[in-house]
Amino acid sequence: MLDPKFLRNELEDTAKRLAARGFTLDVDHISALEDKRKTLQVETEELQASRNAISKSIGQAKARGEDTSSIMAQVGDLGAQLDAKKTELTALLQELNLLAMSLPNLPDDAVPQGADENDNVEVRRWGTPKSFDFEVKDHLDLGEALQGLDFKNAVKITGSRFIVMKGQIARLNRALGQFMLDTHTGKHGYTEAYVPLLVNEDSLLGTGQLPKFGEDLFHTKPATEEAQSLSLIPTAEVPLTNLVRDTIVDEAELPIKMTALTACFRSEAGSYGRDTRGLIRQHQFDKVELVQIVHPDHSMAALDELTKHAESILEALELPYRTVVLCTGDMGFGASKTFDIEVWLPAQNTYREISSCSNMKDFQARRMQARYRNKVDNKPALLHTLNGSGLAVGRTLVAVIENYQNADGTITVPTVLRPYMGGLEVIG
RNA sequence: GGAGGGAUGGCAGAGUGGUCGAAUGCACCGGUCUUGAAAACCGGCAACGGUUUACCCCGUUCUAGGGUUCAAAUCCCUAUCCCUCCGCCA
């Protein structure tokens, strides 16, 4: 959520900055609503003030034992007037709030201008794609041949875009998650967390999935009408970041660095026909998430650091990758700056996204009322939040299978994963 | 599943219809003292919104949403969460 002051005092400038990311702000509509809000709010508060004053004098008169009937007569239809104004004001404020909650974050000044992914800018490249002296297969052919990936049974049990993994491939998937988690907790200073996979509406509003993107999520159907619906997390960013919702943390506790390995669930509404083959786009996949809650002065440095943490996993696995900074038009809803890390996939002969690391600045913090106590004036101030995948386990599995394939269809186990595989060197 | 109790500032915890935005303690900030620190003492200290250059002033907020009343932290209803006892259970 943007600072409401932007919509009051810097509407034109805000509209310009949002236009850079392809979002059109209805300036006339908003300023009309704002004008109305201002007069309504002043009128309402004046009515409240006079009601409070009368009530107070009644209380004082009663305390002195005086007759209050003449003061009572002054009340008249004040209550009815107040109710009417209040109803009107509440509706207006709700409309404005929904509008504010639906606006994306402002891009950081350092983000390149652009319309779509073609305008993203590569910032670095690591490793060299291996040259194979045989025809490479994709992870689907390799996995099925090894009887490690079972798409047919997944369809039978649940439906498309789900997977059953078996044997050493299932273990490899588990090994990847464990390795990532151990690296981030052991080397990068993150605290491991076990978190709920089902979250409530407030959490989704806090991180920005709601009110706009509910259709991207799976929602539970409550047993009773009154019970609230819970939703499956699309990323551990939701529970991890919401840890600081409605809290004021001590500045000395910053930065807070959390990580979790969780399943993630995405409905993939609107992506029918895209990446239908294989593990790239699934309704359910494992991901190790990195979240940092930081002092506002340090969030850009923290983004660089967090991105490096994610990259280090690919380096340890010796998987070639490149890192791009997303242009204004390609960034996610809540991000002010985003690095995507893309891993080399030989079967597709291209780099594919495996991690997305974003500085949300105070966008989520304002929604969540996540604050710290500022040492300068001893007042609460909004925190900055960051998140990134470190990494998407399913896609990393794809990358390992494809990059480490041998001519005979076996898969060499990357060195760093062997301790997690009982010393196994080759899957086959 | 049955019976009962609770939710108040950063934290702990008073407050049961009327100058209550709310005692007190801790924490925090400023000061005195000290070579420095600690202790002690003195003072300050809720958030959000409106108006304003600013001070002031006004409004809202005691888990959330409704209701009663001239007036609600306080009374009523509903929801959520926590605790205690009984039952059941991995």
Automatic annotation (TrEMBL):
Gene Ontology molecular functions: serine-tRNA ligase activity
Superkingdom per UniProt: Bacteria
Residues annotated for L-serine binding in this entry: 235-237, 289, 389
Keyword Cytoplasm found: yes
Stored PROSITE patterns: AA_TRNA_LIGASE_II (PS50862)
InterPro entries given in the database record: aa-tRNA-synt_IIb (IPR002314), aa-tRNA-synth_II (IPR006195), aa-tRNA-synth_II/BPL/LPL (IPR045864), Ser-tRNA-ligase_type_1 (IPR002317), Ser-tRNA-synth_1_N (IPR015866), SerRS_1_N_sf (IPR042103), SerRS_core (IPR033729), tRNA-bd_arm (IPR010978)
Transmembrane segments: none
Residues binding ATP, per UniProt: 266-268, 353-356
Pathways involved: Aminoacyl-tRNA biosynthesis; selenocysteinyl-tRNA(Sec) biosynthesis; L-seryl-tRNA(Sec) from L-serine and tRNA(Sec): step 1/1
First-listed, main subcellular location of the protein, grouped into a coarse class: cytoplasm
Annotated keywords: Aminoacyl-tRNA synthetase, ATP-binding, Cytoplasm, Ligase, Nucleotide-binding, Protein biosynthesis
All copies of domain Aminoacyl-transfer RNA synthetases class-II family profile, residue ranges: 171-414
Subcellular location: Cytoplasm
Enzyme Commission numbers on file: 6.1.1.11
UniProt catalytic activity: tRNA(Sec) + L-serine + ATP = L-seryl-tRNA(Sec) + AMP + diphosphate + H(+); tRNA(Ser) + L-serine + ATP = L-seryl-tRNA(Ser) + AMP + diphosphate + H(+)
Functional note: Catalyzes the attachment of serine to tRNA(Ser). Is also able to aminoacylate tRNA(Sec) with serine, to form the misacylated tRNA L-seryl-tRNA(Sec), which will be further converted into selenocysteinyl-tRNA(Sec).
HAMAP family reported in the protein's UniProt record: Ser_tRNA_synth_type1
Family classification: Belongs to the class-II aminoacyl-tRNA synthetase family. Type-1 seryl-tRNA synthetase subfamily.
Notes on the domains: Consists of two distinct domains, a catalytic core and a N-terminal extension that is involved in tRNA binding.
Subunit organization: Homodimer. The tRNA molecule binds across the dimer.
Name of the protein in its database record: Serine--tRNA ligase
Provenance organism: Shewanella aestuarii
This protein's encoding gene: serS
